[in-house]
Amino acid sequence: MSAYLLTAPAKINLYLEILGDRPDGFHELVMVMQTIDLCDRIEVRQNRSGEINLYCQHPEVPLTENNIAYRAAQLMMGQFADIYGEIAGGVDITIEKNIPVAAGLAGGSTDGAAVLVGLNLLWDLGLTQPELQELAAALGSDVPFCIGGGTAIATGRGEILDPITDLDGIPIVLAKYRNIAVSTPWAYQTYREQFGNGYIRDAAGWQTRMKQLHSGGLIQAIQKQDRQAIAKELYNDLEKVVLPAFPKVQQLRDCFANHGAIGTMMSGSGPSVFAICESRDQAEALKHQVAQELNDADLELWVTQIASPGIQAEIR
Ligand code: ATP
Predict the structure, then answer these.
(1) Which of 28, 134, 215, 296 is the least buried, fewest Cβ under 10 Å from its Cβ?
(2) Average pLDDT of 267-291?
(3) Which CATH number fits domain 171-305: 3.40.1280.10, 3.40.190.10, 3.40.50.720, 3.30.70.890?
């Protein structure tokens, strides 16, 4: 086959707790990650030039080595060119960007995951999902999750995954201000400055928190597919630094709550905010009410849903 089309979904965090500082400089996290049905589309096409060519129309997406999709292709070429050099050649990568950029939705990570999956197929490498996830961890903390998607507890930097019962079909409204972007390193660094004194310092303490999450209300609610209970258990430590710095994001979250969302939370390092709804009709009505009340041309709103598939591939 000479080309594949990958569907690469965004994620939200149903839970994000920062436990402490790791020796490698990252934060130790405990999260519940969830795939949603808002997707980029990525084509990977064989070329014979030996080059990686990247195409994307979105003005905020870099077309350089800074693009995680580019780095994913570099990684695969570096790993497999010796064995598969002749067939590997080069690759043209075209990204149709639908996931908002720098939004806390793992938009870059899912593109990177898609390229790993796509090149595995294009070059017929036969790598298993765990093998792809191991490569993915070198690209970024969220990339391993993006490969398989679904609902998972993520620990470590976010790369250690424990899949749980998949949630499916719960309607959400997602919102983001076009003119607000939050840098993930800034959010974590600011959190460290403000809350670092309260960090859990030892690995045994981290284990205790992870076990508490495993046996706690959110995981039980997910197992029962009880959306009311899930909505009550949403949590994100990064709201403590992002909401005070971006009052419009706080206002957006308040607006969702005031108009009957059963639960609302910022995703990841923000600034996107999601609202869990009882039905698609309620989600459509909520989107309309929030758009009307905030009346801001920079505010983008989507009705979408919680979904289970990770990267999906089809032959071009
Ligand atoms: P995460 O939730 O994984 O922290 P995010 O959703 O907050 O990520 P991204 O959309 O991945 O953020 O964008 C963060 C930065 O990464 C952007 O400012 C952009 O410069 C860069 N970037 C690199 N590759 C991509 C890509 N394929 N798509 C979007 N942004 C990318």
Answers:
(1) 215
(2) 97
(3) 3.30.70.890
Q: Quick one: average pLDDT of 307-313?
A: 95
Q: Does domain 3-168 have CATH number 2.40.50.140?
A: no
- Which active-site residues does the annotation give? 11, 142
Radius of gyration, CA atoms only, the chain: 19
Domain boundaries, the chain: 3-168, 171-305
Q: Give yes or no for a cis peptide into 271 (omega within 30° of 0).
A: yes
State in Å: Cα 33 to ligand 1 middle. 17
106 alpha carbon – ligand 1 mean position (Å): 7
Whose CA is closest to atom 12 on ligand 1? Answer: 102
Residue 82 pLDDT grade (very low, low, confident, very high; cuts 50, 70, 90)? low
**CA 103 – CA 105 distance, rounded (Å):** 5
Q: Pick the residue with more confidence: 28 or 83?
A: 28
Q: Estimate the crossing angle of helix 68-88 against helix 107-122, to 10 degrees.
A: 10
Tell me which residue has tokens 């996931």: 99
As for ligand 1, residues whose beta carbon falls within 6 Å of it are 61-62, 66-69, 95, 101-109, 111, 142, 184, 268-269
pLDDT tens-place string over residues 207-253: 999 999 999 999 999 999 999 999 999 999 999 999 999 999 999 99
- CA 286 to ligand 1 center in whole angstroms: 28
